[in-house]
Design goal:
Length: 277
């Protein structure tokens, strides 16, 4: 009997806490001028109720950041009758949405709404203003030269303070290392031909040159990520080296980025396929 009574009291308290939590959340929403949320959470019951019972005449603007990475259904779910203006912010020259379904890709759902609208408007020769950032603060000018030339019409410039940050860096801006022909390390020591061993050696020697540098490794697929991550985690000095695929690295920053172009499985060449194949 005591246990049943205790359970009932806990349930009552739980329901009471949930009631007050909902009241508190509604109060916070009503008193907020700016609400930060994800696309999925913008459609939860609490947000829906807030939009339905909003103040009379209240104008709601929806701003979607990194919209070039969002599929069209994802964008549509944040819209409702109360949203008066949709503002999409993104860069269609960067990675498209991550879509694994071949069926969806064949029907054109790998393209973001931002890209679709942008190209449609350009095709209609509509004279609308375009706002683009032409100055980057992340990488050295020797690295940004490539995307500037081939993606941004040579309009992308490097901020002066960025060049100053790397003025005394002992490393060259870009190093291409061919492990098929180079069988010795950067300090002359022999290295195992296995690419994971080569990567371990490269990371170790980079940290000797710049001890406090953050290092990121970009790989071609999840199998490569697992392989390299397990190898690096076995070395205590390299446990902070982060390995991931390119779509998961977008938006993140590291002092040094290593692009591991070797595919660990000669049988899996899916990363080379064109879209829709």
């Amino acid at each position: 009997m005591d246990q049943q009574k205790s359970l009932k009291e806990k349930n009552l308290l739980s329901n009471w806490d949930s009631f007050y939590q909902i009241m508190y959340e509604n109060t916070v929403l009503r008193e907020s001028n700016v609400i930060l949320t994800t696309l999925n959470d913008s459609m939860n019951p609490l947000m829906n109720e807030f939009f339905k019972t909003g103040q009379e005449g209240q104008r709601i603007y929806c701003i979607v950041d990194d919209a070039s990475r969002c599929t069209e259904p994802e964008i549509l779910q944040c819209l409702n009758t109360e949203v008066k203006r949709l503002i999409l912010v993104g860069d269609i020259q960067q990675l498209p949405p991550s879509v694994s379904s071949t069926y969806a890709i064949n029907w054109g759902f790998k393209r973001s709404m931002l890209e679709r609208l942008y190209k449609f408007i350009r095709k209609q020769n509509c004279s609308i203003p375009e706002f683009a950032l032409t100055e980057q603060h992340r990488m050295r000018s020797q690295i940004s030269h490539f995307p500037s030339k081939y993606f941004y019409g040579q309009q992308l410039e490097t901020a002066p303070d960025t060049e100053k940050r790397f003025m005394y860096c002992p490393l060259k801006p870009v190093i291409v290392y061919d492990i098929l022909t180079n069988i010795s390390g950067m300090d002359g020591r022999d290295m195992d031909g296995d690419e994971t061993s080569v990567l371990t050696c490269i990371c170790s020697q980079l940290l000797q040159v710049v001890p406090n540098a953050s290092i990121g490794v970009i790989v071609t697929n999840q199998k490569a990520k697992s392989l390299y991550s397990s190898t690096l985690s076995g070395n205590s000095a390299l446990r902070n080296v982060k390995v991931n695929t390119v779509e998961n690295y977008q938006g993140k920053e590291k002092d040094i980025i290593i692009i591991a172009c070797i595919n660990p499985s000669s049988e899996d060449q899916s990363f080379l396929r064109a879209e829709g194949e």
